[in-house]
Amino acid sequence: MRRYTAELVKKDFIGPAVDVPAPDYGTGEQEMAWIADTYRALKPGELHSYACVTGKPLALHGIPGRKEATGLGVCMGIAECVDRRSDMEELGLDPGLEGKRVIVQGLGNVGFHAAVVLRDRGALVVGIAEYNGGIHHPKGLDPVAVKEFFSDQGTLSNYPAGRFFAEAGALLEEECDILVPAALENQITADNAARIKARIIAEAANGPVDADAEKILLERGVFLIPDIYLNAGGVIVSYFEWLKNLSHVSFDRMTSRYTEISREHLLNAIEEIVGRSIPAEQRAAIATGPTELDLVRTSLGETMARSYHAIHDQWKVRDTGDLRTAAYSYAIDLVAKSHLAHGIFP
Predict the structure, then answer these.
(1) Most exposed among 55, 92, 186, 288, judged by the fewest C-beta atoms under 10 Å?
(2) Cβ distance 181 to 106 under 8 Å?
(3) Is this prediction's pTM over 0.85?
(4) How far apart are the C-alpha atoms of 31 and 28, rounded to whole Å?
(5) Ramachandran assignment for 229, one of left (phi > 0), alpha (psi -120 to 50 degrees), beta (any other)
């Protein structure tokens, strides 16, 4: 299992900061700020009032990394899946994300960040679909450029590269290794399941594959990564935000400086032993303590990794048939153990 140190998360999952226009639908930081402010007005004496809702802006005690958490978690979950050599060999694929062809449906908060991080990890994003059409390019697309174009034009019909699909659903049926439906539910049904060519379907949206389609896909040997696991990144980081609000202190405040001082002592000892000075730039990179964002992303990665391996073990050891059933089975086991520990069941 991959161990998610801050350095590994920075190296493997985090590219340059991406600033694109926010969608004009759904809820975001502004709406969460209104809810938090209203709750505080109604409950002026409540000690933990900011813990009433998560996804708040940083100025109202939100947490860094929440915005991209679901999409980042999707990529982390896919990475864990494709790292299993035995599973990939059954699909006729090499392990790892490098070079894998990906089609992403949806340029919202989840799909966009998933596409960016998958691209940065070495995957080839060959298709991006939106509600009013999509683009396919076998040599790969830049999700940031596609997002900016779509935000400006409201359509991908005149995008200067690739082939435009007026019917977005048709793009889901193109050749790829990993299909990431990250938009609406019931996008893959009994009507189109037989035409899906992807070897792996990563459910980034809620319920993008209906029950009839799932049966068809599993019979065809398609590997489904279930939504109940894969798109949990936002909920996980919301939990971190809730803990932060309950403790009234950021996660890095009591650890970052101590870590930096400890590393400085270690670097000084290394320089004394080897009789050489470490270059200033390299020294600064090693000595700097983790930021709150580092801790959030590291903890998210560790949670996604541990959860996948627990579900995978449940699937293989108990022969549950598929990962979705294994995920539900594992969750029910945890609830049952908790009830037994509390003496609820005889």
Answers:
(1) 92
(2) yes
(3) yes
(4) 6
(5) alpha
The amino acid sitting at 137 is: H
Task: Tell me the CA end-to-end span of the chain in Å, nearest whole number.
Answer: 36
Q: Using one digit for the tens of pLDDT, what is the confidence trace for 281-305?
A: 999 999 999 999 999 999 999 999 9
Nearest alpha-carbon partner for 38 in 16, 20, 18, 60: 60
The Cα–Cα gap between 313 and 321 comes to 12
